Amino acid sequence: MKTKKIKVGSMHIGGNAPISVQSMTNTDTKDTGATVRQIRSLEKAGCELVRVSAPDMESAKALKEIKKGINIPLAADVHFDYRIALEAAMHADKLRINPGNIGSREKIKEVAKACKERRIPIRIGVNLGSLEKDIEAKLGLTASAMVESASRHIRILEDNDFFDIIVSLKASDVHKMIEANRIFAKRFSYPLHLGVTEAGSVYTGTIKNAVGIGILLEEGIGNTIRVSLSGDPVEEVKAGWKILEALDLRQGGVKVTACPTCARSNIDVASICEEIERKTANVKKAVKVAVMGCAVNGPGEAKESDIGVVGGKDGALLYIDREKKGKIGKDKVVDRVLKEIMK
Known about the structure:
- This protein is of the alpha/beta class.
- Helix content is 41%, strand content 21%.
- The protein has 2 domains: 5-246, Alpha-Beta Barrel (TIM Barrel), CATH 3.20.20; 254-341, Sulfite Reductase Hemoprotein, domain 1, CATH 3.30.413.
- It has 12 helices and 15 strands.
- It is elongated.
- 45% of the residues are buried.
């Protein structure tokens, strides 16, 4: 669905801009060295925008030094104290706030004015677990309540002549997250940041986010994504890119297709795939690789890939650019595929 196009540092969110992948640091923001190192790891993994928490004034001031050491837009996450938001606005490319908890209308006006002068957008982040008490009392913990909260915050900013707005409506409940974003997309044209919050560990969290984010993206809803996970944020970026690649919304990196294996498999498909993915994790070149255990579906999948291998009893057939090139030893599969990828 077409939305407004919002500039965030060197990139855009919404409009005709590609759907972007973002993450958030889990370091102590005041430890600028550790925070910059983590952001650089995120950049290497493909992160396109990073959010850093600014829970106090010292953290907000640290954003200046952090900004100098990174190459992607920096968003500051601020709650409750408008003075912290004003300091963060001096250094960040975007603020994530909820206008309703930042202070009085006059204080909100100051924050909106500072962001407008510096031409940085504000993301309104609505979370089902922290709705306003009056909205919760009226509508309960529902998708409609999330949208009502977003509407309230949007009106506050619009009343202060501020319109560079991005919105997120997150919940740990996948159904409510999906429903809230669907309702919002029908009513507003502001870009949407998608994600399932408090999703859990890398395994369960990736699944929940893939379902929630994936359904909405397939419907044309959403402009930027964060796969929220407990643990190393690099895993969030990897998962985000895999979601976009699975839906053919972004291309880049090595995409491995593999059969689920059965008694007919003639090569160790799982270990071959894992090794290829591990050794090409930071490759940006778009390459489709098929690793198939036998000749039942193998040749067909291999012919649909840039590089394909099909297991046989005495070796593996190699396909390059959809053409069969010959046979290689089973112990040579990974090395040969990597060689072809790097050409």
